[in-house]
Amino acid sequence: MSASPLPRRRLRNRLMLVFAGFTLLLAMLFGLYALLFVYTVEDRLFDTLLEREAAAQQAHYAAHGRWSPPRNGFMDVVERTDALPDGIGDVLGEEPARREFAGTQGRHYHLRALDPPAPAPRAWLVAEVSGLLAVRPMRSEMLQLLAWTGTIAVALALLVGGWLARRTTAPLSRLAEAVGDATPERLPPHFAAGFPDDEVGLLARRLDDLIARIRAFVEREREFTRDASHELRTPLTVIRAASERLSADPGLGADARASVDHIGQSAAHLEQTITLLLALAREQESPAAVPDTTVLPLLERVVVEQSPWLEGKPVEVSVNVATDLGSTMPAPVLQVLLANLVGNAFAHTRAGRIAITGDGDALRIANPGGAVGEHDFAPFAKGEESTGFGLGLSIVRRLCERHAIDLRFEHGEDGTVAYLPLRKGAALSPASRTPSALRAGD
Q1: Which of 325, 377, 370, 326 lies closest to 346, judged by CA?
Q2: What is the mean pLDDT of the chain?
Q3: Cα–Cα 20 to 30 A to 216, which of 81, 272, 308, 430?
Q4: Does residue 162 belong to any structural domain of this protein?
């Protein structure tokens, strides 16, 4: 058995990506908060200096009736709005609540209103702080530092995530290898003992219990097929031997001899059918195909065997198959398929005509009975008037899947038509390729 390919979406890679993505997100948030913090601290420093100077100016104006020169050289008192530098007055007219402005040639201003007692007009305390800015000159270096820090953090996250992912997925990989090559004949016994007592160990123990139940089930099935092979073949051998002895009796009448021969043939066919069904149950290859098995004798024998389904029914059966029509399917397989398809047509046809014809490399079985649906291929599915066990079409489906037989059904005004290919790769009738066709293997 060839090794299974590695999955495209490996759990280890996804864990590493989650670690790296989470670390990158944290690094970006940290960088954003760091920039906001330094900018906020810087602006808060300028606002504090302006508040102190504004309080001193208000006190001086209350005492002397005029504004005094500011104590800080980067500040100035402007008594008219139109005298504010770098067009600040125009911007202030549009945004009266704004207190921070960008000027020309890299200058930067902070503004504070001075409200003297009436009727004196409002003045403005202006601070040109471009020479005092600490964050802006080093912003590029800060961004580079944050980028390198984030890169290192992501690399560490990948290393830690890879290590953790390997430790996490290693038991799962061992578990997959332990059960990956398991077959009904070769199941790994008690493999859960080597796994830790965690979720993976719990899964391994549950699989171990399941495999133990499967092993017991396979053993029961093997014993059943072995016992069925012995117990069924022995009485069939007795029946065939007894029929051969009776057939050799010279005093046997013609009708009795025909019945005895029919019993012997049916016993032989039943032995072939048992061999085929046991092979299906053991999931082994079916008997080797006999080249160019003649279809007509086998079909006539099947029609005779299934004829009791037509007793008391006004049904006509026509067989139009060339005597040299052959099939590359194994004779037991073809017999079981024909027996179930013909028997199904006989059982579900109350009146009318059943036509069995050779259609190129396919056999065409048309009957006016009920339509065959997908549910009819399920085991034990049968109609209300059926006296069987509902296993015939289920066996047909399994045989078609095993031998890659493209069995199809067409439903029309004339009833149900089954198309059974007789050779591998044979083209079916064009009618069987209509949208209403149903593939038995689907």
Answers
A1: 370
A2: 77
A3: 272
A4: no
Residue 55's pLDDT band (cuts 50, 70, 90):
very high
Count the alpha carbons within 13 Å of 244 in the hemisphere toward its beta carbon. Answer: 8
Contact present, 126 and 81 (Cβ < 8 Å):
no
Q: What is the DSSP string of 73-124?
A: TTEEEESSGGGSGGGHHHHHHH-TT--EEE-STT-EEEEEEE-PSTTSPPEE
Query: Is the distance from CB of 124 to CB of 78 less than 8 angstroms?
Result: yes
Is pTM beyond 0.70? Reply is no
Q: How confident is the model at residue 186 (pLDDT cuts 50, 70, 90)?
A: low
Q: Is 183 helix (H, G, I), strand (E, B) or coil?
A: strand
Asked whether residue 394 is domain-assigned, the answer is: yes
Q: Looking at the structure, do residues 261 and 335 belong to the same domain, yes or no?
A: no
Same domain, 260 and 295: no
Model pLDDT for residues 114-156, shown as the tens digit of each residue: 988 888 888 999 999 888 887 777 888 888 888 898 889 888 8
Residue 255 to residue 46: CA distance in whole angstroms: 124
Task: Name the H helices within 123-282.
Answer: 139-180, 199-247, 254-281
> How much of the chain, in percent, has pLDDT values that exceed 90?
5
Q: Is 408 exposed, middle or buried (0-12, 13-18, 19+ CB in 10 A)?
A: buried
Asked if the peptide bond before residue 368 counts as cis, ω within 30 degrees of 0, the response is no
The H or E element containing residue 418 is strand 415-421
Query: Encoding tokens for residue 349?
Result: 């046809």
State the residue range of the domain holding 229: 192-265
DSSP string, 261-327: HHHHHHHHHHHHHHHHHHHHHTT-PPPPPPTTEEHHHHHHHHHHHHGGGGTTS-EEEEEE--TT-EE
Comparing CA positions, the residue from 262, 342, 344 lying closest to residue 295 is: 342
pLDDT over 50 at 379, yes or no: no
Left if phi > 0, otherwise alpha if psi is -120 to 50, otherwise beta: which for 415?
left
**C-alpha to C-alpha distance for 424 and 328, rounded to whole angstroms:** 7
The CA-based diameter of the chain, rounded to the nearest angstrom, is 156
